[in-house]
Every structure is written in C-alpha cells, then in structure tokens.
C-alpha cells in the first residue's frame, strides 16, 4: 500500500535524514523578500546557512523566483521606509483629534492634558525619527541585494521562452478551473501573474528531472493550494504535488516554512534560537497581513467589511489564550478532550478565514465555538484546574476575546 500511495505518506525519521542529505533546497520569492524584514543579526545568520548550502551544491532558485523578487523588491523596501512616517502621522493625528474634537470639554483641562501628551510622546517621536535615520538606505546601497546576488548568482534556473510560457498559461486556465495545485487560489487575479506559482512549479520539476535530486521547497506561501492541512495544522505538501513530482521527475518533494527549516538546520546551535523566533514572528505577521489583504476581496454581501478588524483581533487573542493554556500542563480527561475538540474547530475556521473562505456561516460558527471555548476555560478556572499564574495571565486576554467575540456575532 505505501509503495502504491507513496504521496499520501509522511516521511519517516530516517527518510527525512536521507532527504536532507540528498536534496536540492529551493527558496521561493517571499523567503528572499523577507530578508528586508529581518534584523541584521538574523540576516547574517540566514546568509551563513545559504552559503553553507551553496558550498554543498544544495542551493537553487527558479528563474520565476528571481523575476518576482526584482518586481517586488522596491515595494517591500518602500513599505518599511514609509512606516516611520506613518507612525508619526498617527501620533500627530491623535493629538490633533483630541485638541479639535474635545476642545470645549467641560470637565477636562485640555491645555494641561495637551502639554502632558506632547511631553510623553516626544521621547517616542525622537526614537522613531532616530530609527528612521538609522534604517538601511537600500534604495542607494543594498547589502541584501548584493548578498542575494552573490549566493544565487550561479544557482538560478533559466527563463522559459515565450511559447513555453504561453503553453503554461493555457494549461493553467484548465488546471485552475479543476483546482489542480499549485496556484489555483490565485485564479481571481486579473492578469497572467496569476500563473506565477504554476510557472515556478514547472521550473522546479524541470530542475528535479535534470538533477534527479529530491526537492525541499522553503516557502512563505501558506495557501491551501500548496499545503495539506488538518485542524489548522500544516502536515505536508498536498499529495497531488508529491505525486506530480514523482510522476514527472521520480523524486520526492517536501515543503518547509522558513522558520521550520532554520529550526531544523540550526537545532544544534543554541545561540541561534532567537533567529528562529524572529523568522517565525515575521512569518506570522506576514500571514496576518495576507489575511487582511484577502479580506479586502470579500464580496460586500458575504460579510460586512466592518468585521475585518474584529476577525483579525479575534484570532490573534485566541492564539495567545491557546498558548497560555498549553503552558498549564494536563487537565482532567473530560475537560482536556472538550478543550482540544473546540480548539481544533476554532483553528479550522481561523484557517478558512485566513485563506479567504469567508461567509456568514463561517463567522457565526467561529463565534459559537469561541463562546464554547470561553465557557470551558471559565469552568477550568472555577474548578481550580488552572494554576494561579496561568489564570492571572489569561484573564485580560479572555476578557478581550469575549469582548471581540460579541462584536463578530452577525445574528
């Protein structure tokens, strides 16, 4: 059975070891663009890893990744350069709003309050301006670009000719209609860029065919047209992808997020644990940003636009509460299984929302499960099952989650 349905099986520990020793590590566009989002220490560590892989001849990127990197690089740089001014504008607007909207408040001395606000914010504003001055000037001198060019200069695939690209686009239309991965989640994009993932995928298959090496893709793409998920957990690449790689190149295929890849690669280097934590945090922030972006495409008659902010805050608070509960240890069996069941369902609906599959019924069910979740937690607190330290840390997050959950009730 396993031999006949190899694509449905996860690798054993020994198979993972063999895979890492023999494979070609392929990096996607997001993993390269995120180099502009990491601290200098993390970037240095990451590039040390890339150069080690280069030395072992295990490093490569498709031409499509290089193209997308150059097309999006300036936008990512500009996004961070403009963030300082955006924060300063928010602070300035807040001060002006207080002054104009409440200037005639009968019970507040707005003149004195304004002085206190300006005094309190001046230090923060100075820090923001200082950080802006010290921010790397990548538009004029880009050390990240230089490092990427150095490490991938001889490790990038060739561009497809126009006819090949045209054939892939025609085939892509049919694949996307049938929801054949990867890339079909991009079907609503308006131009041929919707086929970027498919072009990248074919270039990876071609490289696998050429080298006869298994492929490990390091990816920042978390859509369900790449991953097999269960109860909110990403288990492995979609079996359809593994099978297509086996059928066309006769090699194995696996995917890691950047933080999971570095976690395994740096597991014997204790000093680099903070690097993994930062890469994971950036991935989570990017996932939240992508969630907000997808919410912008929701049709007006599905879920009111006002709920976007509430949904994002809701799943954020749930993640914090779930992590705190995990730190408590075991509960008595009945409560533990009830909590696990409800928590898994919330993760399932959280992921549906993250991937843009939002409807009124999805939001209502999320609301209901969070109600059940909060009830179970309250019972645990009342019964003394939660230790005092965990219960104390939980309280503000439980209250916020309850408040937000009331706001996303569409009934």
Textual characterization of the structure:
- With 411 residues, the chain is mostly helical.
- The protein has two domains: 1-286, no CATH class; 298-407, de novo design (two linked rop proteins) (Up-down Bundle).
- It is 64% helix and 6% strand.
- It is built from 15 helices and six strands.
- The strands form two sheets. The chain has a four-stranded parallel sheet.
- The longest helix is centred in the first third of the chain and has 39 residues, at 63-101.
- It is globular, with a radius of gyration of 24 Å.
List segments where confidence is low: pLDDT < 50 over at least 5 consecutive residues: 297-301
Binned, the helix content reads 55-70%
What number of domains? Answer: 2
Instruction: Summarize model confidence as the mean pLDDT.
Output: 82
| Alpha carbon gyration radius | 24 Å
Give a quick precis of the structure.
The chain is mainly α.
Any descriptors?
411 residues; mainly alpha; de novo design (two linked rop proteins); 2 domains; four-stranded parallel beta sheet; two-stranded antiparallel sheet; 15 helices; 6 strands
